[in-house]
Amino acid sequence: MVVQAQEGRLTTSPVRILVATAVPAERDAVAGALPEPGGTPSPNPRDPEVRLPGVTLHRHGALDLLAAGVGPALAAASVSAALTAAALRGTPYGLVVSAGIAGGFAPAAPVGSLVLADEITAADLGAETSDGFLPVTELGFGTVTHRPPGSLVREIAAVTGAPAGTVLTVSTVTGTAARAAALRQAHPRALAEAMEGFGVAEAAAAHGVPVLEIRAVSNPVGPRDRGAWRIGAALAALTEAFGKLTPVLESWNPHDR
Ligand SMILES: O=C(O)c1cccc(C(=O)CC[C@H]2O[C@@H](n3cnc4c(=O)[nH]cnc43)[C@H](O)[C@@H]2O)c1
């Protein structure tokens, strides 16, 4: 909710929210918890879809859903296109949410559970050296972690029951016990790994928009075992989570960081 002064009066308008998933199945799982497509504000309030370069927005009330692609680079490019288009239309987003399925670190994040990021961290952005991995920040560049607004993380953790911790972004899905152990050692607060959160967060940060990441666990992080995937259960958990957290997102005041 945004409070504005208009003609001497205080008015409120809902914050516009962009939810970026990787693939259409995740986007549709989020949509399953929302009102029918459409809603305002929109250039054409009856138009439930808006085509942008490379991506299509699906509008559901205050939430616009975007299947932004797999991996941090495509997710960043797609979210950046949506943020720029909204800003140019004069209806900027007030919050970006990265949502989808993820690998969970046992025992904190079992398959079918939900996790919430209080830190969104790029786990493999840096340089390998004979003394180990150096994050890009130690090479003198950029950032490797974005932090969602604490008030929002606390409220969403309370309504969903999801634990809050670090959600890692990787460009390569972990497939061995050794890599899982190395990630765990480097990031003791890690609950899950996925492939888009950091890219979404970089795009949001470039526009000065806060970011959130919420993930439903489809598989354990560890030795590759496609038989252990439970994508249906994770998508169902995502729908259930958005049923609970959407009212919190819609009433969130961006000044409460
Ligand atoms: O082929 C494999 O062994 C394999 C294992 C896990 C995930 C994949 C994917 O291609 C899914 C990538 C997609 O889903 C998210 N995701 C889900 N689980 C994980 C994971 O364990 N590690 C990283 N990403 C995961 C991710 O955000 C992508 O959108 C293949």
> How many separate domains make up the residues?
1
**Could you say which small molecules are bound to this protein?**
the ligand O=C(O)c1cccc(C(=O)CC[C@H]2O[C@@H](n3cnc4c(=O)[nH]cnc43)[C@H](O)[C@@H]2O)c1
Which class of secondary structure composition applies to the elements? alpha/beta
Assigned CATH architecture: 3-Layer(aba) Sandwich
How many angstroms separate the termini? 13 Å
SS strand fraction: 25-35%
CATH class: Alpha Beta
Characterize the largest beta sheet: strand count, sense, and whether it forms a barrel: 5 strands, mixed, barrel
**Helix percent band:** 25-40%
The sequence of SSEs as H and E is EEEHEEEHEEEEEHEHEHEH
